[in-house]
Fold this sequence. Notes:
With 248 residues, the protein is α+β, with helices and mostly antiparallel strands.
Amino acid sequence: MKIKIVCALMCLIPFGNQLYAQNINPLDYLSKKVRNLSVAGSHDTFTNGYTFAYAITGAPWNGAFMSFGGFDNNYDCQISTAYGTEPHMSFRTRNGDFDVWNGWNEIYHNNNLNRIDVDFKARNINGENLFLNGNIALGTSDVKGYKLAVNGKVRAQEIKVETANWPDYVFAKDYVLPSLKETEKHIQDNGHLPGIPSASEVKNNGVDLGEMNAKLLQKIEELTLHLIDMEKKNEALTNRVFKLEKQK
């Protein structure tokens, strides 16, 4: 029995390097009438408990507020949450070496990561694949209905555009090839090639790479047919001139 008592007393003796855990008990603060924090800066001195804090104190949100830590509250961590419909949660830590609070950091999740008023910074996103649902905007807040909208220059080693209705139909026997006179008249009347958007349209709406490449290829194929026809006519004319000179 004496041995048990001595052991129990030894367990109660504090050691020089012993760390004391904090007991977060809201009743401690209710007894001090700290039912909420509403004075500017009062959240800085709030330790070892949880309560309600208003943003006017300097906390990020109006809502539940918790502070916990060790080393006599010199290295606390505080958590601030919003009570409204927007599910916000932020945290900050205290640097006891310099007696200062570090800045607040919001915790990102599926309900706030894509908000236009929330800034998310990441140095690297490492992984084999990155899957995103929705649209991506770089340098702009308006995707204009596109999956990827970039306000600025894009550099890439290779871009593959998938498109349908490739203009091989120009070489079909039933294709009606516009005459050069028709093309000339369209240019005179409209200032651009038939089937090609005008400069003002491109300025306002941009260019669809797949569609534009198909249109340009269509014009190249039409020009190729005109050149083939012109070469045949030149050969026929050359042969006729040669025969006339031979008859002299």
